[in-house]
Specification:
about 260 residues, alpha/beta, Rossmann fold, 7-stranded parallel β-sheet, about 45% helix, binds NADP nicotinamide-adenine-dinucleotide phosphate
Length: about 260
C-alpha cells in the first residue's frame, strides 16, 4: 500500500541541500517523515534550513563541507549514525557545471574541479555510506545526473557531461555489488530546473525561452518536481528499482520540435 509518509523512520543524507533541488528535497523528505543529514558548503544556509525543518516538526542536522573531500562524506555518515542511529539512504545531489568552454580551451584545472565535485564526490559519498547501509540491512542511494552527456551533447560542457555520465557507471556497479545485501542504487536525470544553477544557464529571458522550448512540456521543472522523483527512488515504493536511470526531464531527451 502506498504511504502518505513514504520516508517515515528513514534516515537520509541530502547533499547540495543549501539550494535548488537539494533544498526542495530536504523540505519534501522531511514532510515525508525522514530524519535528515544536510550537506553543502554554506553553513549559514544549512543552519537556516535545519531550523526551518525543525520548526515544522521535522528533524535534521547540518554538515558543512566540500563533497570533493572524503572527510565530508565520513562526517555526514557519522552524524547519521551518532544522532539518528543509522543510515537508510542518500540523495547524493551536490553538483557544479563549471565554466563553459570548448574541449580544446577547457583548463585542466576546471576539468579537475568538476570531476572532483560531481564524480569523485559521489564516489566518496558511496564509499562512506555503503558500510552504514549494510549495517542496517540495506538501503537506497540516488545520484543526481542530467540529460547532458546522456541524450544531449551540450557544447561547452565536457567536464560536466563526463562527470554526470560517469555516475551511471558508478551507480550500476554499486547496484550490482550491493543488490545481494539489499542496497539499491539509481541515477536521477533532471531536465532544466528553476534553481540558481538552472537560472545561471538560462541567463536571459531569450535563453530561458530557448531552453524551455527544448523540453516536450515547453517549460523547465520546479525543484520539487525533481525532488518527488528522488523521493520515489529512496522510498520502499521503488523496492524493485535498481541500477537504472530515471529521467524526470520534461521530455528534453525525446523532443525534436
Ligand atoms: N538546475 C538544472 O537545470 C539541473 C538539470 C539537471 C541536473 N541538475 C543537477 O542537479 C543537482 C542540483 O543542482 P541545482 O540545480 O539544485 O543547483 P544549485 O541550486 O546550484 O545547487 C547546487 C548545490 O550543490 C552544492 N554544492 C556545489 N558544490 C559543492 C561542493 N563542492 N561541496 C558541497 N556542496 C556543493 C551547493 O551548495 P554550496 O554552494 O553551499 O556548497 C548547492 O547546495 C546538481 O547535481 C546538478 O548538476 C540540475
Amino acid at each position: 500500500m502506498l504511504s502518505s509518509r513514504p520516508l517515515a523512520d528513514k534516515v537520509i543524507i541530502v547533499s547540495g541541500a543549501s539550494s535548488g533541488i537539494g533544498a526542495a528535497a530536504a523540505r519534501l523528505f522531511s514532510r515525508a517523515g525522514a530524519r535528515l543529514v544536510l550537506v553543502a558548503r554554506s553553513a549559514d544556509r544549512l543552519e537556516a534550513l535545519t531550523a526551518e525543518l525543525k520548526a515544522a516538526g521535522g528533524d535534521a542536522v547540518a554538515v558543512s563541507g566540500d563533497v570533493a573531500r572524503a572527510e565530508t562524506a565520513r562526517q555526514a555518515v557519522d552524524q547519521a549514525v551518532d544522532v539518528f542511529g543509522g543510515l537508510d539512504g542518500a540523495f547524493n545531489n551536490a553538483g557544479i557545471t563549471g565554466d563553459a568552454a570548448p574541449v580544446q580551451d577547457l583548463p585542466p584545472s576546471e576539468w579537475g574541479q568538476v570531476i572532483a565535485t560531481n564524480l569523485t564526490g559521489a564516489f566518496h559519498a558511496a564509499q562512506a555510506q555503503i558500510p552504514a547501509l549494510l549495517a542496517r540491512g540495506g538501503g537506497s542511494l540516488v545520484f543526481t545526473s542530467t540529460f547532458v552527456g546522456h541524450t544531449v551533447g551540450f557544447p561547452g560542457m565536457a567536464a560536466y557531461a563526463a562527470s554526470k555520465a560517469g555516475l551511471l557507471g558508478l551507480t550500476q556497479v554499486i547496484a550490482a555489488e550491493g543488490g545481494p545485501q539489499g542496497i539499491r542504487a539509481n541515477v536521477l536525470m533532471p531536465g532544466g530546473t528553476d534553481t540558481p544553477m538552472g537560472r545561471a544557464v538560462a541567463s536571459t529571458p531569450e535563453i530561458r525561452q530557448y531552453v524551455e522550448g527544448l523540453h516536450a512540456l515547453k517549460r523547465i521543472a520546479e525543484p520539487e518536481e525533481i525532488a518527488r522523483a528522488a523521493l520515489f527512488l529512496l522510498s520502499d515504493d521503488a523496492s524493485f528499482v535498481t541500477g537504472t536511470a530515471l529521467m524526470a526531464d520534461g521530455g528534453v531527451s525525446i523532443c525534436r520540435s
